[in-house]
Amino acid sequence: MTGLLMQYSLRNLFRRRLTTTLTALGMALVVFVFAAVLMLSNGFVRTLVTTGSYYNAIVLRKSAGVEIQSQITHEDADIIESHSDAQTDVDGRRLSAREIVILISLSKKITGKPANVVIRGVTDKSYRLRPVVKLSEGRFPRAGSTEIVIGKSIAKGFQGTEIGQRLRFAMQDWVVVGIFDAGNRGFNSEIWGDLNVISQFFRRNVYSSVIFQLKSGKMFEAVKERIIHDPRLKVDVKRENLYYEEQSEMMSKFLNILGISLTLIFSIGAIIGAMITMYTATATRIAEIGTLRALGFKRFSILMAFVFESLLLGGAGGIAGLFFASFLQFFTVSTMNWQTFSELAFTFSINIEIILSGFAFSLIMGFAGGVLPAIKAARMNIVDSLRNA
Amino acid sequence: MLLLKLILRNSFRHKLRTVLTMFGVTIAILAFGLLRTMVDAWYAGVDAASANRLVTRSAISLNFFLPFSYKEKIRQVEGVSAVSYGDWFGGIYIEEKNFFANFAMDLRSFLEIYPEFLVSETEKKVLFSDRKGAVAGTKLAKRFGWKIGDTVTLRGTIFPGNWDFTIRAIYRGRDKNTDETQFFFHWDYLNEKLKTMNWLKGANSIGWYVIAVTKPELAAEISQRIDKLFKNSMAETLTETEKAFQLSFVSMTEAILVAVQLVSFLVIFIILAVVTNTMAMTARERIREYMVFRSLGFEPLFIFIMIAGESVFITITGGALAIVCTFPVVKAFGDYMSAYLPVFSVSPETVVFDALISLAVGFIACIIPLWYTLRIKIADGLRAVA
After folding, report:
1. ipTM above 0.85, yes or no
2. Which of A92, A221, A277, A385 is 20 to 30 A from residue A139's alpha carbon, by CA?
3. How confident is the model at residue B368 (pLDDT cuts 50, 70, 90)?
4. With contacts defined as CB-CB under 8 Å, which chain B residues touch A65?
5. B269: which chain A residues are within 8 Å (Cβ-Cβ)?
6. Which of B61, B160, B336 sits opposite A116 (nearest CB)?
7. Which residues neighbour B299 within 8 Å (Cβ) at sequence distance 6 or greater?
8. The pLDDT of residue A1
């Protein structure tokens, strides 16, 4: 019996293709917007979260939230490294890197507008600390030279970044000798060069951060205790992955507020659309409803049939919306991160949570739009509705 | 007359449906207005920028400083009438989420060059005489309940330590788009403290200079003159109009802006879908009536006006309701977002756009049903079952 009613609902949707399509399209657009904003925020967070490693620790000056605000003197760096108890590599050298992070302004390829780009002064150990940074073209810079290697997103988005070209900053020409790919991580939006050369040309006599690899992940707390309790130092120690995660907070919060308030407003519109459709569906089928009731279908079954029809409508919209939203994953967005003031490229990224909540959301919209018309249909009097034919 | 009567009667034949459709339009136009207002808010700093002002900063990027000694050299450039200078301080008030913009500026020259920040003469006097004095915007003071004489402590992120200030003045904005959420204090105070510290940004260095010019039409020329002065020096400069300077910040987050605008177009599509849907149902139900009209000799134009009139009537009413609602909604949303976007107000253009879109949607929505109605033969239409 219920199978019959469900088929009835399904066929009704097919019978009124234009209306069904338009209503589902409205819902699909809402789900699309909902998913798109969440994907944007998710992609942003993911890029930063995966940038840092759980096994690395980063030391910054106390209360400097980001590397560009931080400075660590040579003496402090020595003290930090003596406490760090870092992993050693095959040559027995500590896997610990002092780095300088500086923002420079480069012009974007398409718009020609300037944007802030991170230039990082690194040593050979910086590469070992980040095995995710892999050369995709050219070679890595020679130590002591004004050669630079640039992240893939910078190479894609900024002018003058092809191998062999020169970028001018700090009153010096820098030759691009290679392009690296860190696989959708924050490093792809950076330029790397030799630490000593960069500090010399930018006249910097302090480092921005000290990064070292822990012998084991569990050691972090002990090392941190030692460093922050040294009275000579005024520094913060963070796990590298957490450090990058924190940088995503402001932007992702903004995107989430924006996304959720927009979707709420739109969803009211879509629910109204569904209500219109379902009210019309009941109005044009009064005689049919009367017949079904006369055949012995209970009020509750009628109610369920109409709610089911509306849920189908919502579900179809949800699937369509998510389907189109999933194509957004091919797009890369590059924008300034408010916390670091530097450009960061990231992709829309979908996850199972977004899929489930998007689909649930579409069903809720369908239900909200269909429940009142369904009640109206179920409450009809048999005789009156039969006479209506 | 007959037409008007028909349109009104038809519109309210299904009261519930018409009212729901109107609400649908209202919601969509409201969302569109809200999004547009947000885009305006994004550009508020650009719009508020004066054509009479130039900004000189380090050519490398804003993170680099210029020597204090440039001030006199810039002042002597022909066409420059006044010079002010300062730093982005980036202090945090108690917690990170209390974010607001705070700057160390040379307050005397700054308030001269920025006449849109209104400070009473008596407050100015006290402010200038107090080394730790600070001036805050009306909205900012209201947000934290600050009164004149209160002590405010900021934790430095760029300049370490806790910094105490005394609120000596509260400024009001002269124009509607003046940002009233900023905080300024004496650059000298920062500089003196820096002299005692061994710090990356040494004493006597400047984040940027603000320059007032006598004639805005000479801005480009004056910019070039200034930059030429410092070409090939250890700190090359980049001078641009305040508008261009503000725009460079906006353009850095442009990707989000584009997304927001894209969404506002989607909103229009949603409205279209909803209204088209209603109109399609209407047309389908009334095929027989329309055919009766046609067989009685009414022109297709008559049918067109009847269908389009109904559609436009519904969208315009919904749109009008939306415009009325936009103002309180924007106000509520603006209070909520004030930490991100300080200036939030509905522009006249937004209202005009709202009205135009409602009208356009009304017309576009009736295209499909109209085509459907005019396409079928009268005889088929008369036989049709809804």
Report:
1. no
2. A92
3. confident
4. 96, 157
5. 29
6. B61
7. none
8. 54
One digit per residue, the tens of pLDDT, for chain A of length 389 reads 567 777 888 888 888 787 788 888 888 988 998 899 899 899 999 999 899 999 999 999 887 878 888 889 999 999 999 888 877 777 778 889 999 998 888 888 888 888 889 999 999 999 999 999 999 999 999 999 999 999 999 999 999 899 999 998 877 899 999 999 998 899 999 999 999 999 998 888 889 999 999 988 888 999 999 999 999 998 999 999 999 998 888 888 888 887 887 788 888 888 888 888 888 888 888 888 888 888 888 889 889 988 999 999 999 999 999 999 999 999 888 888 888 888 899 999 999 999 999 999 999 999 999 999 999 888 888 888 887 65
A chain contacts of residue B234, beta-carbon cutoff 8 Å: 171, 203
**Candidates A206, A261, A270; nearest CB to B200:** A206
In angstroms, the CA B134 to CA A337 distance is 29
Please answer whether residues B31 and B261 qualify as being in contact, where contact means their C-beta atoms are separated by less than 8 angstroms. Answer: no
Nearest to A19 among B199, B266, B280 (CB): B280
- In single-letter form, the type of residue at position B352 comes to V
Q: Which of B313, B299, B298, B306 is nearest to B359 (CA)?
A: B313
Contact B24, B279 (CB under 8 A): no
SS3 label, residue B82 = strand
CA distance B80 to B212: 6
B/e letters for A116-140, b = 16+ CB within 10 Å, e = fewer, are: bbbbbbbbebbbebbebbeeebbeb
Question: The whole model's pTM is what?
Answer: 0.81
Q: Which two tokens stand for residue A88?
A: 């050693």
Helix axes B2-11, B300-337, angle to 10 degrees: 50
Mutation target among A280, A337, A347, A348 for the B interface, most CBs of B within 10 A: A280
CB atoms within 10 A of CB B188: 12
Residues of A in contact with B21 (CB under 8 A): 272, 276
Phi-psi region of B297 (alpha: psi -120 to 50; beta: other; left: phi over 0): left
Question: For residue A280, what pLDDT is reported?
Answer: 80
